[in-house]
Amino acid sequence: MKPLEHGFFEGRGRSVIVRAYRSGKVVVQGSGAADFVEMFLEPEILREARIGYEEALEPEESLPHAGSDECGKGDFFGPLVVAAAYVDPEIARALRRLGVRDSKEVKSDARAIHLSEEIRKAVRGRCSLVVLGPAKYNELYRRFGNLNRLLAWAHATALCELLRKVPSCPRALVDQFAKAPVLERALEQQGLSLPVEQKPRAESDIAVAAASLLARGEFLRRLALLGKEAGMRLPKGASSPVREAAREIVRRHGAERLHALAKIHFRTYAQAADGGLSPVRGEDRGESPSAVASRAPCAAPSSGYGAIDRIEEEKTERKS
């Protein structure tokens, strides 16, 4: 037993680590985690059995359905990624064995990338990704007029692509990001008749959690690639380290370089030159999302997380 920063304690056994946080969360890790939960935590502390009984306790979660979620909308640098994933009882069991949960609860970036790789294998291709690199994102943001309309189009596009792979998918769940009619209009414009439920904090659903981690893994990988192009590490979020990195890029390469690395409607864009730049606002032209998409299709997602060299070669070929 030993003290734990921001927590009550950390306990280590031969095959299990238990961390109890002041928020009320208890994290159990290690090869003996399942035995610890089943033999001690549930009977002695929780007074209820849940592990291994998810299908009985939450049967709807294991029934065939899709989930979608996004990553990168609050990050100045990097792309916007929307992912959709399909689950059925077999896939749901495989995802639970992996420990899939909301990506926000996975604190390690390396762990998130690893899980996203394993999720791709578990769903056996029954997933889709819409990846908008900064340049394409900035173009579409101007055309759509606001972020929620852009997000709605991206979610509808991801679900539409998933449905091509799994035509029998009966329903979908989306982590709600705007008022329901915003997404409903985008789904109609895509000609999607799939019943879609929108729910706040939907990441507790296994399909949405899988989509969340797929999106986060792709975002992190793309952010790293952009950092290599910029010649420096690009931090996540929109905090002071992000502003300092943006200022450094402006100092080295000029403000135009940010258009290929960042979302320029953020206030950080103006702060990068100490107020000498103005954030780019949306210009709503009254066009439908489908009309915009037909002229500006989104970037194709990567086919794997170990193919950095291949993607860089493709970029070189396109330039030549």
Description:
It is a single chain. With 320 residues, the chain is of the alpha/beta class. Among the domains are: 7-51, no CATH class; 61-224, Nucleotidyltransferase, domain 5. Helix content is 47%, strand content 14%. It contains 13 helices and 8 strands. The chain has helices at 33-46, 54-57, 59-62, 89-98, 109-123, 134-144, 147-165, 180-189, 206-230, 240-253, 267-271, 289-295, 308-319, and strands spanning 7-12, 17-21, 26-29, 65-71, 80-87, 127-132, 172-175, 196-199. The chain has a 5-stranded mixed beta sheet. A 3-stranded antiparallel beta sheet has the order 1-2-3, covered by helices on one side. Helix 7 crosses helix 8. Its EC number is 3.1.26.4. A divalent metal cation binds at residues 69-70, 175.
The largest sheet has its strands arranged as 6-5-4-7-8
Q: Return residue spans where pLDDT drops below 50 for at least 5 consecutive residues.
A: 53-57, 284-290, 292-320
Which structural category do the helix and sheet elements fall into? alpha/beta
Mean pLDDT, as a whole number? 82
N/C terminus separation: 60 Å
- CATH architectural arrangement of the domain at 61-224: 2-Layer Sandwich
Q: What is the percentage of strand-forming residues? A: 5-15%
CATH level-four homologous superfamily name of the domain at 61-224: Ribonuclease H-like superfamily/Ribonuclease H
Number of strands: 8
CATH C-level label of the domain at 61-224? Alpha Beta
Shape, please?
globular
- Output the radius of gyration: 21 Å
Portion of residues within helices: 40-55%
CATH topology of the domain at 61-224: Nucleotidyltransferase, domain 5
Largest sheet: 5 strands, mixed
**Helix count from the secondary structure assignment:** 13
List the helices and strands in order.
EEEHHHEEHHEHHEHEHHHHH
Region (Disordered): 275-320
GO biological process, one term: DNA replication, removal of RNA primer
GO molecular function: metal ion binding; RNA binding; RNA-DNA hybrid ribonuclease activity
InterPro entries: RNase_HII/HIII, RNase_HII/HIII_dom, RNase_HIII, RNase_HIII_N, RNaseH-like_sf, RNaseH_sf, TBP_dom_sf
